[in-house]
Amino acid sequence: MTEQEIKALVSLLDDDDKEVLQLVEKEIRQQREIIIPYLENEWEGAGFNPKIQRRIEELVHDLQYEVLVERLSDWHHGGAIDLLEGLWIIATYQYPDLSLESLRSDFEQFYYETWLEFKEDMHPIDQIRALNHVFFSKLKFGSNTKNFHAASNSMINVVLESRKGNPITLCCIYMIVAQRLNMPVYGVNLPNLFVLTYKKDAVQFYINVFNKGLVFMRSDIDHYIAQLNIKTNDSFYQPCSNLDILRRVLRNLTLAFEKTGDSDKVKEIERMSAVLQEPIDE
Fold first, then answer.
1. Is residue 13 a contact partner of residue 24, using CB atoms and an 8 Å limit?
2. For 52-78, how does the pLDDT look when each residue is reduced to its tens digit (9 = 90+)?
3. What phi and psi values does residue 203 have, to the nearest 5 degrees?
């Protein structure tokens, strides 16, 4: 479809004939994301016609959402290798214009800040202390206890800007920087809490990023599980995958939108979660 044809198609969104409108919207959806800039221009030209503007907003959201779902599926089927990319895809649900490159640039700065105080021959605990100093004292990251269940806590760009987040998002930022420094730091899926583990050869301990990088041991997890009165599981002690992390982030988002009563968003997040449950062809 030529640019002139696309513009003509978009201009028909103000047609009063329902049948014509249905055909126009169907054709617009088939054009996928390439038509979004034209829809945005039409929105600006709609002036004070809220009905047309709302129609365009819904179309743009639907088109952007389909792009997100496709990216998420590609990330999953591509091995779920890049955690930051996965977090970026989720953040584009509410911030569709968010740039992955800008996020990578932020992390390069965090890496540089930590690298200045980091030495590879440090004892592992001292490495964590150095990272804690930069993360909490210099960069001022901390727990968002006031709005713990807010959807914004699951948006990597918002947490990077506000420096406040929930356990899993703070852990993700901390872990990405640590791994950039070649530290063997990974996520651990505890019930009701997400933490990190430093694991290399016979050395293993845990880090509670939500509690200012507190270091703790396996016996502390034993005590925590006993307090919850649930059956212990090996997964409570061992590193989890990037896929596990994104699944948990989406569960948090589902809970956030359930609390605000936004059933449409709940359904969309559930579809994203279903994408991450798809079997991968061998």
1. yes
2. 777 778 888 888 999 999 999 999 999
3. -95, 120
118 vs 148: CA distance, rounded Å: 31
Q: Using CB atoms within 10 A of its CB, is residue 243 exposed (0-12), middle (13-18) or buried (19+)?
A: middle
Q: At 9, which helix (H) or strand (E)?
A: helix 3-11
* Identity of the amino acid at 257: F
Could you give the maximum distance between any two Cα atoms of the chain, in Å? Answer: 72
| Residues of the chain falling short of pLDDT 70 | 1-17, 20, 31, 42-49, 281-282
Q: Judge whether 114 and 181 are in contact, CB under 8 Å.
A: yes
The three-state DSSP-derived secondary structure of 209-250 is HHHCCEEECHHHHHHHHHHHCCCCCHHHCCCCCHHHHHHHHH
Q: Is 17 left (phi over 0), alpha (psi -120 to 50) or beta?
A: beta
Kindly tell me the burial class for residue 196, based on how many C-beta atoms sit within 10 Å of its own C-beta (0-12, 13-18, 19 or more).
buried
Residues 6+ apart with CB under 8 A from 241: 80
Q: Which amino acid is at 2?
A: T
Q: What are the structure tokens assigned to 167, written together? A: 């356990």
Nearest Cα to 205, choosing from 94, 141, 129?
129
